[in-house]
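Task: fold both queries, return tokens.
Query 1:
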Amino acid sequence: MCELFCLASRLPTRATVSLERFAQRGGYATHAIDGWGLALYDGHDARLYKEPEPAANSQWLKFIEERRQPTNLLISHVRHATEGSVCLANTQPFVRELGGRTHIFAHNGMLSKIAQKLPDQYRRFAPLGETDSEIAFCILLERLSKIWHADEIPSLEARRAEVERFASDMRTLGPANFLYSDSDALFAHGHRRIQRDGRIEPPGLWLLQRSCASDSDALVQEEPSTLTGQPPQQLVLIASVPLSDELWRPFDESEIVIVRNGKVLLS
């Protein structure tokens, strides 16, 4: 299956070390060799990098790490193609505009026959590629468009309710782990995934919270801040599998975690 990774922080930071480890998941030693993508927010807009090639040898990832672009929210995906050809249009994350905000979505799983089982649920938003994941994103945006308007952000409760209903519908089709952000909040849904023993079962995602110094490379700091007069950095990392030896928490089956400004709001 595919691999998901997300970094959310209170203060802008850079994901140098975790990106390196994440890229290894897209190397030839794993099954996920069909492409990779990374989207990082810059205000309400997002910088999107993706290519239908293995991440481990990507010159773009090296450029991104050398550029060291800070962000408060980063979503990344390594693809193992199960539906759709290996091409740019089928490479995640997917990005669309809604309500004057950039929305980002990445999915890990298999949503069997989603177009046939949920017909006519995406009219305004049309997929560019052929994947079940992109159709799912179009369905989610179609539902959210009823509450999103350019002049205001819907309440967190209204958005949570729509995401929960969407996740419930996706779970009936197959493993439905996803990361979704509307530039204001992150919604992470953990379901089931193929485990090392081959069984499809929870956890679908893992979570790590970290507090550290507010320097420019806060992500690589593993000790709590001892600096006086410095605001603490708060970090939330979410991934398909733990990326370090720290104490990552597995998602419960069907759990939705909402993150804003590097802090878990609801779980």
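Query 1 returned. Query 2:
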Amino acid sequence: MQKLTTKLPDNPGVYIFRGPKRVILYIGKATSLHTRVASYFRRDLISTRGPIIAGMIEAAKNVDFIETDSVLEALILEAQLIKKHQPPYNTKEKDNKSFNYVVITKEDFPRVTTMRGREMDELANSRLGLGLKSEVKYLFGPFPQGGVLREALNIVRKIFPFRDKCKVGQGKPCFNAQIGLCPGVCAGLVSKTEYAKTIRRTKLFFEGKKKTLVSGLLREMKVSANNLKFEEAGQIKRTIFALNHIQDVALLKASPRMVLGEAGFRIEAYDVAHISGTNTVGVMTVLEDSEPKKSDYRKFKIKTSTNDDNASLREILERRFNHAEWPMPKLIVVDGGTAQVNTAKKALKEWGLAIPVVGVVKDERHKPKSILGDKILAQSHERSILLANSEAHRFAIGFHRQLRGKIR
């Protein structure tokens, strides 16, 4: 670990923002340490990262960094350090229940899978299940980005094929076994002892002990060669090569998200539903890391006594931002054109919130026609914006019908 003096290297790694007395404020990963850390000092920091991270930068006194051999190893190291130090701005930026974890189960042929924090809470609190401790053997995380973690697991799985969903002894190879991503647990193609080696290696890798892992594999390779098991030795040699030359192109493709600061990127979409100004309701839907977070969806019965969608939108936003305990969005999506976007921007400005706003304009058949607002955000998040807007419309119509049914 080194103290930042001039500039950071253009290599993968983990960066650590520190406050007074070197207190750790925030930990993140980067495809390029230089580019990533530089992005925190741009003029548009609040619009790209939000007010929480902007506040962190004001409090930060210096930055440390740790270089890694690959983006994948940076991802794993980030999770280890977040777990160890519990930096305040990591937990402020994202709800703990939204973090992702790698789980290795307690079974004769363990499964390697992912779980969200809320799923782990449900398992731990389940009265019917065996509970978290009795079902999970190893747990790694937290990982802030679910999509990036899934790509990472795909890379690890090519090096150490593991079981995730297939049934032990089902008699025929599952699809993943057919393409080399499962060792054939399902078809009885691997023994319990051999599979345990795979699990141990996977565990070491997710513990960030690549050097220990490679050293052990080198010893195993020499033993196999001395015992004239050349095919086995060759396989171990290929595994060592793969570990030393990790092909994390899929993670590098995700680098624009890392550079733009999209870790835990929260989008909130708002919509209003009514019939001729009666039974007016509003909703908020949420996407995190491009995935709907339905536990954060909210319904609002509009109290404003006027047939005015803009007034209703303002009321929804005001009631929403009275909840300081809710995670802050990094982008707001409204259903409508210039008037709705300006209403939201004006309200946010009054409340001292610098959150970018985009509007989804519909055609005569209520199909998305264009996105108004920040062009860069609209292009880079187009799919998520449209999904969030669609979810808001669906949720609002459903709530309105439900309310009308009760009144009848």
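Both queries returned. Flag for query 2: Residues 2-91 form a domain with the GIY-YIG endonuclease fold (CATH 3.40.1440.10).
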